């Protein structure tokens, strides 16, 4: 009989979540996690935003476990069928095979964000308590769900869910400048962390790689490459503002000047900071990684092999080859 456990955590409307966790029916070893684009329901959402939401999940995975867990991100994987937990549900199987990752040791971490709008009327009264009409109210809520699935056995190992309300009158955080639904994004990251914590007990036994010491930022040109991204850039000025916002969404810690610089770059991985003795220095642009696209998850995945990674680097119009140990 399959064992399962239901765990509930409630810490307030904005940060609480529920989780349902199942024990796998057979011993499980995990060496890779696949993160496809986020599914968005209740509102028409562009593919470029579904991609960048999942890229934020990738960043969480790399910060937490990139030294031991191979990550395959939304630039390489798509969900074909959300009702299919096996390999037929995504195109991940050939991607894993080409990357030399055992499919039997891979989990899929897929997320859904559903927008719910509640409308109503708030009655108003005058100083005498008499009705003086009503005011229409609209409340935007997001229901976020993150599933952890083992496609090899077609088993769902866990589901994490949480709800948040987007309050337009909340004190500004700075995030609303590039992410009007930042509470949803934060909940997505929170649930992703919880799902990844669960994978730790299944990780294959291998040594963690050393930290490169590099701070890297992904160019928003990857976001702009989506076919529907042009609809958000109706003129040159709006395109520039949009690209800067996308740079800050992908790397919320960026300062405005660096975001403006990154917004004008091609699809690269920008070196924001580096140790003094590193082969790469701040301002360098990684153009490719071992002949593959310059994605942070690709670099982290290559380094798990325990051998130096060759990268093509650009700076001031010149290109060179470097090695990241």
Keywords:
eight-stranded mixed sheet, five-stranded antiparallel sheet, 13 strands, 325 residues, Pdz3 Domain, Rossmann fold, globular
Description:
24% of the residues lie in helices and 31% in strands. Strands 1, 2, 3, 4, 5, 6, 7 and 8 form an eight-stranded mixed beta sheet that branches. It is globular, with a radius of gyration of 22 Å. The N terminus is likely disordered. It is an alpha+beta fold and 325 residues long. It contains seven helices and 13 strands. The chain has two domains: 199 residues, Rossmann fold, CATH 3.40.50; 110 residues, Pdz3 Domain.
Q: In the CATH scheme, what's the topology name of the largest domain? A: Rossmann fold
User: Main β-sheet, in a few words?
Assistant: 8 strands, mixed
Oligomer: single chain
The beta-strand count equals 13
Number of self-contained structural domains? 2
Strand percentage? 25-35%
N→C terminal distance = 47 Å
CATH architectural type of the largest domain:
3-Layer(aba) Sandwich
Order of helices and strands: EEEEHEHEEEHEHHHEEHEE
């Amino acid at each position: 009989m399959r064992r399962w456990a239901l765990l509930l955590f409630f810490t307030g409307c904005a940060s609480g979540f529920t989780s349902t966790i199942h024990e796998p029916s057979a011993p499980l070893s995990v060496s890779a996690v696949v993160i496809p684009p986020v599914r968005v329901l209740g509102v028409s959402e562009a593919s470029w935003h579904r991609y960048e939401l999942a890229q934020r999940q990738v960043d969480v995975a790399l910060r937490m476990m990139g030294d031991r867990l191979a990550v395959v991100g939304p630039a390489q994987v798509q969900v074909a069928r959300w009702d299919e937990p096996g390999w037929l549900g995504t195109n991940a199987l050939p991607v894993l095979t080409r990357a030399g990752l055992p499919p039997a040791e891979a989990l899929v971490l897929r997320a859904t964000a559903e927008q719910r709008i509640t409308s109503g009327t708030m009655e108003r009264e005058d100083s005498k308590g008499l009705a003086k009409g009503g005011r229409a109210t609209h409340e935007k809520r997001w229901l976020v769900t993150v599933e952890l699935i083992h496609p090899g056995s077609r088993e769902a190992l866990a589901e994490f869910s949480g709800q948040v309300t987007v309050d337009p009158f909340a004190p500004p955080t700075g995030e609303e400048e590039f992410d009007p639904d930042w509470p949803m994004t934060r909940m997505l990251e929170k649930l992703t962390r919880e799902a990844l914590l669960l994978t730790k007990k299944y990780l294959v036994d291998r040594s963690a790689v050393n930290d490169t010491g590099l701070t890297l930022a992904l160019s928003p040109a990857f976001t702009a490459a989506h076919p529907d991204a042009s609809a958000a850039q109706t003129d040159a000025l709006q395109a520039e503002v949009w690209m800067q916002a996308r740079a800050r969404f992908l790397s919320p810690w960026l300062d405005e000047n660096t975001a403006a610089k990154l917004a004008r770059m091609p699809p690269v991985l920008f070196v924001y900071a580096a140790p003094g003795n590193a082969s790469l220095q701040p301002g360098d642009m990684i153009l490719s990684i071992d002949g593959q696209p310059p994605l942070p998850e690709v670099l982290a995945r290559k380094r798990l092999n325990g051998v130096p990674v060759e990268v093509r680097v650009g700076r001031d119009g010149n290109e060179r080859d470097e090695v990241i140990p």
